[in-house]
Specification:
Helix content is 40%, strand content 21%. With 96 residues, the chain is an alpha+beta fold.
Length: 96
């Protein structure tokens, strides 16, 4: 699963989270550019915001700012680069 497009990583993450019993919502916030791509809710109600990138993509300045503002307020926001990091996140959030 190396060198996948961001959309392919996202589809795989959504499928894996749902198969693990979680929810994975697309995060859109009109008027607030740069918010993370997805919101994951675990089986026990934990909420994690996820910004997906390929292995070589970088955060835009607005994305870094939004993530910083969310983290300042206690939000669990993850920047996931590539398929391997995505799989590791799903395994962390949904241990067997």
């Amino acid at each position: 699963m190396a060198n996948l497009k961001e959309s392919e990583i996202e589809r795989s993450m959504v499928r894996r989270v749902r198969e693990s019993g979680g929810l994975c919502y697309k995060f859109q916030s009109p008027g607030n550019p740069g918010v993370p791509d997805r919101i994951i809710l675990t089986r026990d109600g934990r909420t994690v915001y996820v910004e997906l990138k390929t292995e070589i993509d970088r955060l835009a300045k607005i994305q870094a700012w939004q993530i910083g503002e969310m983290r300042k307020r206690g939000a669990d926001v993850r920047v996931v680069r590539g398929a391997a990091e995505m799989r590791a996140l799903v395994e962390e959030l949904f241990p067997a």
